[in-house]
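2.7 Reproducibility. Because tokenized structures are sensitive to small changes in the input, we list the exact sequence used for Secreted protein, including any N-terminal residues retained from the expression construct. No trimming or masking was applied before prediction.
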Amino acid sequence: MSTGVIIALIVIVAAVLVVAAVLALRARGPRHGGNLKRRFGPEYERAVARHDGDTKAAERELADRVERHGSLRERPLEPAERERFEARWTAAQERFVDSPREAVEEADRLLAELAAARGFPAGGQYEEQVAALSVHHAHHVDGYRRVHRETHARADGERDAGAGTEEMRESMVAARALFDELVRPAGHHDGARRHDGPRHRAGADGDAAAPAGRAHHSWSFSKSRPKES
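Resulting structure tokens (single pass, no recycling of outputs):
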């Protein structure tokens, strides 16, 4: 075999290897992005919007969140802890009737404390706490953002620019979805209270998860006082 033929074969093999590598990288990219999109759901779309439609930048951000927080293992709550958190949420919902702003502020504090109790970064590291929550509770973490945004907009002197009562009610309903996920026992899947979106039964009608042995209040964030059921 002549030297020219050998060189030609080497060039052809090298070209085939380069093409195969490029095709493999292209194939890997969409799968990676598809996995992130499935994992993060609405968080994926939010990240893309924040990066002005740049999906690659959004995927790099989300992949970084997974790298930082994907190995986090949520600590189960003790029964007494769960009961205290549930009682505080019930009280916040009832307070909404007469003091919606204070109720939203309490929901913000409560979610920060509950997330920390489950093993997420402490509430003093809000951005990192939300990033970690988005990895494990992507479909409901935005409810926490909403009550936090309302709370801190008013704290920064923007009270008149805050949401109206209906918007605050909606933020409480959205936040309740995350609260339900965090407060439930680890590995617990109650078919009657699955979260298929922000209008799941418990959030849509405002029912509080009553701790065992306590009276249950059924109400709908209306302007009237809650009625004893």
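Confidence is low (pLDDT under 50) at residues 25-31, 189-220, 222-229.
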